[in-house]
Amino acid sequence: MQFHHHGYVSTDPRVLPAEGIGLDRPDELPDEMDVLIVGTGPAGMIAAAQLSRFPDVHTRIIERRPQRLEVGQADGIQARSVETFQAFGFAEELSCEAYHITEMAFWKPDTATPEHIVRTAQPVDDPQDVSEFPHLIVNQARILDRFAEFMERSPSRMRPDYGIEFLDLTVEDSGTHPVAVRVRHTAGPREGEERVVRAKYVLGADGARSRVRASIGRSLDGDQANHAWGVMDVLARTDFPDIRLKCAIQSHSGGSILLIPREGGHLFRMYVDLGEVTPERKARIRGTTVEEIEQKANEILHPYTLEVRHVAWHSVYEVGHRLTEKFDDVDDASRSPRVFIAGDACHTHSAKAGQGMNVSMQDGFNIGWKLGHVLTGRSPEQLLSTYSAERQVIAQNLIDFDREWSTMMAKKPEEFDDPSELEDFYVKTAEFPAGFMTQYEPSMIVGAEEHQQLASGFPVGKRFKSARVVRVCDTNPLHLGHQAEADGRWRIYAFADRPAAGQPSALTDWARWLAESPDSPVVRCTPEGADLDALFDVKVVYQQRHTEFEVTDAPPVFLPEVGPYRLLQYEKVFSVLDDEDIFEARGISRDGAVVVVRPDQYVAHVLPLTDTAGLAAFFAQNTLDARTRVRA
Question: What is the pTM of this model?
């Protein structure tokens, strides 16, 4: 973490200097703004957090509740989400307070005594070792708190506007702020007052009953709820031995439980199978009490017993798989979208795979940086059309996976062809629920795969899978991907060819082109007077050990001058570890390669060091020239 380049800092370095809207941010929701986000759930808050790093963009996020969420419905944090939190600076803190899932236990009827359950398997949670990050359980409210802290410390000093309810909107054909939004104050001195505010763009992250979705004529289509689960977060006395392990429990009676230990050492969550939702049972199931859920849980856990002592939260969850056809307000290419939806507003599914909050946050991360780039004039408006194109497909894949998983969880033990089918499926598909199967198709921000063999461990369209390197300036071993902040910048990683730093090489020629050529995205897109790395974070990894060259041997583009004192940025030059060569670990050619990574951590392109024209052409389609840039 660097923070002295603008002068000595003795206060909390995570609180960035105020800029732009942060210098005079209105306390009250103004009549006009650039982006209005509706809903302070995971999708809305991560989008707001990302946009808070664009202080020239006036973003507001409204919530009809009068204050922060206290008890969140979601709790499962997959490894991809923790990886994302790393970019927002709170992965380590959150991991300290969270429950860590390392194994999952499977319980089934005892073949000798079928009315009793027994443990039949206990596989590790990440058998493929797909991530260095853990699988966590923590209250959704704490995630939202972390994003709120990030927003408030950002240059724009953003914070949620609580006590304001979205009513409806209309998109007009003209004007600088064409989206007219009707809202109502639900708390404070203006309670009950309705007014119209105007925005350039609106993001609806307002849940499964989204009014934003309804306002743009979209609907959730798919399966109606056909299976119900009682869910409760409780403190209880029990003799069940795996009460502090994630468990899938199936009983002889046909009922099942998904047990999720919670953070704090005592609290746990139980999803208890309540059976099929028939028209005759629908009203009755919705009224299921905590006592009835507890009774059902005891039937399934037999011969073990459970005595609930305190209920923190409970609900009845009806499983339905529904999806919106598009995630924006445009059906053709006649104009760029103005209104977007994210999270439960556009896809709903069961909670059994722990995907809802995780996929929703990736929705918000995706649209957040794109809005920031368009509104600051870095990218053309066409960039916004890639949001729905990318995320709708991912939501469909999630629903397909969740339908299979939730169906298996609801099966009776005797209905399986193979007794180990459930745990085998869990192990086989571990990479999907962990969040690492997402792969975006070629577009203006995802290149072709023609040079994939140069870096086979960084598949184009998939997230950048980090590996360890040595930072040459201070000899610290660290993860290369962990150095990327959620600051809206593109990452360009240059993996050097065989010659060392300071020697003639393809890397040296490439670095000179990047720093000097009018076709270079760094030269073409960086505004006059801005730091060389203001829009592009360019790093190099050499094949030599750090003791074999000096950091100052690296070309100037990897040692940019930053801040008012024009200090050299030394932390962009890396080498391989003695016992862990990133070139071998990620299949990188010894002839070198360039790996381009989007602001939301997905690999956008892989090219040879010699293909400067290809790199120039890629950025020419998604990043505007600084000399012609016009703020949207």
Answer: 0.93
Q: What's the angle, vertex CA 121, arms to CA 115 and CA 125, rounded to 5? A: 135
Task: Tell me the C-alpha distance between 222 and 217, whole Å.
Answer: 16
For 151-178, what is the mean pLDDT? 96
Token pair, residue 453, equals 């063999």
Both ends of the chain: CA-CA distance in Å? 32
What does pLDDT average to over the chain? 92
Among the listed residues 47, 43, 13, the one whose alpha carbon sits nearest the alpha carbon of residue 372: 47
In the numeric block, which tokens belong to residue 194?
């309705």
Q: SS3 breakdown of the chain: % helix, strand, coil, rounded to 5?
A: 30, 25, 45
By C-alpha distance, which of 128, 31, 143, 42 is closest to 90?
A: 143
> Which pLDDT belongs to residue 322?
87
- Among all chains, which residue has been given the structure tokens 């840039």? 629
SS3 425: helix
Report pLDDT for 592. Answer: 98
On the question of pLDDT at 508 being above 80, the answer is yes
pLDDT of amino acid 546: 97
pLDDT at 357: 86
Answer yes or no: are the C-beta atoms of 100 and 226 closer than 8 Å. Answer: no
CA gap 368, 48 in Å, rounded: 7
Q: How far is residue 52's CA from residue 37's CA, in Å, rounded to a whole number?
A: 12
